[in-house]
Amino acid sequence: MKYYYPDYFDAFQCVPGKDCPDSCCIRWQIVVDPETLQKYKQIGGELGRRMSEKIDAKTGKIAPHGCDHRCEFLNEDNLCDIVLELGEEYLCETCHTHPRHEEVYPNVRERSLALTCPIFCRQLLLRQEPVQILQREENSKKEHDRFFDWKLFQVLLRTRDSLLHVAGNRKLSIAERMITVLGLGHDVESRIRKRSLRKQGGWWQNIFPSYPDFTEQEFWELRQIRRQYRSHHVFSRVEQRLDEIIYDEKYFRQESEESAQTIMTNMIFALSTMEALRPDWPEYLQSVLNMREEMTREESADWMEQYHAWEDEIPLEQMLVYFLYVYCCSSVYDGQLLAKCKMAVVNVMLIRELWFMKWYENDQSLTIEEQAEIAHWYVREIENSDENMEQWDSLMQRNPRFALKKLLKILR
């Protein structure tokens, strides 16, 4: 069994009670795992009665209460009554591990910390050192899943290493790194698509799935792509390619087409159409849109230039590395690597835009506490809802608001 995890994973410690600015036991549907649910059925007294009334015996879902949708067992001091009375060993798996997360693949486990946690979010934004992804192996029974595309997964693991290398290249600006990430995701996915065209269809594939090998030519092209994108002169080559291929298109030549400001506004609007976990989230996004509407294109460009001169790009790098690490390998299930790269880049772009608007509103000042609050709130709205994650992924794949050309136009 192989375990992948960022170098900060083991050092994280939760801050309980009211010292945490946004408890993970609020506005989140908590589901008790079956093993812990059986333990809860043996508990007597007042706590046992509350458990039997407030935890669904079939699904394990804990009924939240109040306008803040607090967990039934979170008391007024933001401490867990289960822990206080029974100890941490009685926590369900979700509560025991969060914000630690483990993505399960056959013979591979990928561990991460969720940026939805405000304590971890602040720690990551304050970190100056580049993040390293560590790996260790443990002897365990081999797992086999005939529906898992192991050949594609191996390609994705190698590609993600290159994506993280690009994201951490501090010789480039963060915008140049995001452009390069999109280019690498695009080029690798084009080879994945070639290979997928050789898949055989038919009802038997649902019972005995088989995945074609990558040809020697495709393997060679993939190695070349990864090598070229890891080179010192990668962005000059990407920029030349943009000028030759993309900027020759009619979309970029006409001044009457959408401005970068309009494209960004449309992206924020798309975000506001998704399920809101906090009732004040749509109101906050609308206030941002209203401020943007009050700016002319020239004013927006001028203020953004001043903001870029003020900001530190390292927190943006840390978030880009985080999103790429968490999202990329999940494309083993759909082959949509570029969409996962888009999700990572768009998340950073939107968080940066929300920071910029807060900086503008605060008369050109922004504290690390404000940055952490906005970033963790944004990620929580996206990642703590399965519906939102599916919609976000779908938007990256199909919605013209997030077309590659538009993202590149903003970043250029």
How would you describe this structure to a colleague?
By secondary structure, the chain is mainly alpha-helical. It has two domains: 73 residues, no CATH class; 262 residues, no CATH class. The chain contains 18 helices and four strands. The chain has a four-stranded mixed beta sheet with strand order 2-3-1-4, with no helix packed on it. The radius of gyration is 23 Å and the shape is globular. The two termini are 42 Å apart. About 2% of the residues have low confidence.
What's the rounded overall pLDDT mean?
89
Order of strands side by side in the largest beta sheet?
Answer: 2-3-1-4
Poorly predicted runs of 5 or more residues = 250-256
- How many distinct beta strands? 4
Instruction: Tell me the β content.
Output: 5-15%
Helical residues, percent: 40-55%
Counting H and I runs of at least 4 residues, what is the number of helices? 18
Main β sheet profile: 4 strands, mixed
Q: Helix- and strand-based class? A: mainly alpha
| Cα-to-Cα separation, first versus last residue | 42 Å
Tell the overall outline. globular
Roughly how many Å is the radius of gyration? 23 Å
The number of distinct structural domains comes to 2
Give the H and E element order.
EHHHHEEHEHHHHHHHHHHHHH
